[in-house]
Amino acid sequence: MGFQQGFRINTNTASLNTYRSYAASQAGMEQNIERLSSGLRINKAADDAAGLAISDRMDNQIRGMQQANRNVQQGNNLLQTAEGAMNEVGNILGRMRELAVQSASDTVSGDDRDSIDLEFEQLKSEIDRIAKGTSYNGMGLIDGSTDGASEKITLQVGADNNAQDQLSFNLADFRVDDGSSAISTFAGVQLTDGASSPTDKNFQDLDLDTAATSQWAISALDQAIEAVNDQRATVGALQNRLEFTSSNLMGSIQNNSASMSTIRDADFAAEAADLAKNQILVQSGTSMLAQANGLSQNVLALIR
Question: Is a pLDDT exceeding 50 seen at residue 196?
Fold first, then answer.
């Protein structure tokens, strides 16, 4: 048999107990509304201190990887700029070789050869113009204008400061083996006379004045075309690597974002169901609180 409660007016235990349950339901409803309006399960440290710390670290990591992916795209843009210029230079060299083959025949008259050589010289100048005009963010890419440490391009391709988070390549790789610019003036390109012995001539010395010089130009142009093709292959290999780097970063971003969402984001279905429950409890608590407060009025019946 339980204890019998007396009539007291200074302390309404039933009202206090009802209010405690009402306040808990009200706080729960407010939290449900906050989570549903923000979309976040954790809106302040008190909601989940450990979860907040973990999600913040993951958020910083994700933002770092997103910027790293943008760095990769910028690096790829640089390489595309260089490769596009090399492609045009390769086309020009092909046309120059065609002119050299035409001029190498003794059936071509002197006047015709002069006309051919005129176009040949213009094409040499155009190669030089393209090389000097090809740049990215102020950096000359294929004209040999950089030297020493400035030739090295380092891309930050990861979110941390580790060796594997950096990718480097050298603008010197866009040149021929002897370190001279291969598609600008060709001043340092070691040309041969067709018998494997080097000559003192360089690309700028080429002309189509005679059949003999035209024949020699054919071999020289073959070397220049090969040099440009080697450089394009180097650029293409770097572009392929950057594509895989970008793909890996996007995969990491996706996976980390999913993990962070599990920790930080609100489950709308669960929160909506909990909100409905708390709303009912708040409404019933309000009614019960009114009834509990009315119990004290029963004391008046004793003194009437």
Answer: no
Could you tell me if 248 and 101 lie in one domain?
A: yes
Q: Count the Cβ atoms, other than its own, within 10 Å of residue 164.
A: 8
Q: Say if 122 falls within a structural domain.
A: yes
Expressed in percent and rounded to 5, the helix, strand and coil fractions of the chain are: 70, 5, 25
Evaluate if residue 178 carries a pLDDT over 50: no
167 bridge partner residues: 155
SS3 168: strand
* pLDDT > 80? residue 192: no
253 in the same domain as 274: no
Alpha carbon distance 196, 194 (integer Å)? 6
Tokens 């349950």 locate to 21
* pLDDT band (50, 70, 90) for residue 36: very high
3 state DSSP class of 180? coil
**One domain for residues 201 and 147:** yes
Shared-domain flag, residues 91 and 126: yes
> pTM of whole model > 0.90?
no
Instruction: Look at residue 203 and tell me if it is in a domain.
Output: yes
Identify the domain containing residue 229 by its residue range: 55-264
